[in-house]
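Pasting as-is:
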Amino acid sequence: MNELSKYLCLLLRHQPEKAELDMDEHGWVSVEQLIDGVNSHSSYKLDRELLEQIVSEDNKGRYRFDESHEKIKCCQGHSVPWVEPELEYCEPPEFLYHGTTTKALEAIEESGAIKKMKRHAVHMQADISKAWQSAERWHKTPVVLKIAALEMYKDGYEFGVTENEVWCSEKVPVKYICDRIYNR
């Protein structure tokens, strides 16, 4: 099921064309079309019951159904250029956390900022344990960066938060990194 969930993320965040999905400007696709696309274009077998289980058990809350459970999307993390995540723009907490690796931290410090890369935004968490989940997924030396988010906001940077409580910003200049945490 974990591999199928990763495949769903690939389709719903990065490559909807692999399963011939008609994705709207916020990343929503028809549940029926997703099930048919997965079953027709991959070796996975998906039905509504399994999809409901994957969504309900996802520890990061990546997926959302609409109210009628006829459409599904990933909340953030899209690299599809025409998808605009649905964010609530608001004042962030005093500190947010960004999970990454020590190798990526070198590049961040060289460039002067945490950049969004191919995604729509830099992702941060209010809960440090969720930032550790992100940092550890790369199977490299993890590090969590503590971000002075409220200071950034007061300096004019916008923050939006997704339905699954991931905080997003266009970039994070290194001057707002107030701590580098190397151990849980």
